[in-house]
Design goal:
alpha+beta; Arc Repressor Mutant, subunit A; 9 helices; Jelly Rolls; 7-stranded antiparallel sheet; 3-stranded antiparallel sheet; globular
Length: 239
């Protein structure tokens, strides 16, 4: 099992509650109840939160950092289903269904997690019916995102998929000035796995954007130097 670093209980918990879409609209009493049930831990880049086949007995909320949700294809290649950003929930489907994990979750950068055990989450759902509605919305949005990702792979070329993925990853960041340069901490291989393309084709699309002064390729990351140009190029391709 990966090493864990439990965060001090003195950490501002209600600040985090305001960041999680799942808990929006809950009463202050319900928020306090939630905060009393969670355990906060820090995870380092590369650590596995859970892997395929693990027992699913917890649900996770990401406060800070970034995670990737992955599975293996029949050929044994990694497929990135989703990049999880701050304020998002993950690991809920297998936990609610009571089945072993059907995918894996790995830390992309140092992250702060909130973990709530299954029995505590179920009691919270019983006590706070409004939370059930938010959970349904969260699952529904994830399904729509998965459908859009599948259509993207089927209908668009690699260059279009690369631009779309980078724009989506930029949106994950909390930003005051959306047109300022932004470093996205993702490897070219993870990006290729996310969009369903080979690393070579992904690199060629990225190199084209680099030659157009849209971004700069860096070690384990991509620096988007001109976010507005990236968005405009996507619009031009969609037109």
């Amino acid at each position: 099992m990966p090493s864990l670093t439990e965060v001090s209980r003195s950490y501002s918990k209600l600040w985090f509650t305001g960041r999680v879409d799942l808990l929006q609209g809950m009463s202050e009493e319900a928020q306090h109840r939630f905060n009393s049930m969670v355990r906060r831990t820090r995870r380092r880049r590369g650590e596995w939160v859970f892997v395929h086949g693990d027992r699913a007995d917890s649900i996770y909320l990401l406060q800070h950092g970034r995670m990737k949700i992955t599975a293996l294809s029949e050929a044994g290649h990694e497929v990135v289903h989703e990049i999880v950003g701050p304020g998002e929930i993950f690991g809920e489907t297998s936990t609610i269904l009571g089945i072993p994990r059907t995918n894996s979750a790995q830390v992309l950068e140092t992250s702060l997690l909130c973990e709530i055990r299954q029995k505590n989450f179920e009691s919270l759902l019983t006590a706070c019916p409004e939370l059930s509605l938010q959970l349904f919305k969260s699952v529904g949005l994830r399904l729509k995102k998965a459908e859009a990702q599948l259509l993207n792979v089927i209908c668009n070329d690699v260059s279009t998929r690369v631009r779309g993925a980078l724009i989506d990853l930029m949106a994950v960041e909390s930003r005051i000035h959306p047109d300022e340069p932004l470093r996205i901490k993702i490897t070219q291989q993870d990006l290729a796995n996310l969009i369903g393309a080979s690393r070579q084709k992904t690199w060629e699309a990225l190199k084209e954007l680099e030659d157009s002064s849209v971004l700069r390729l860096m070690y384990r990351s991509i620096l988007v130097t001109a976010p507005h140009k990236l968005r405009n190029e996507r619009l031009s391709c969609a037109a």
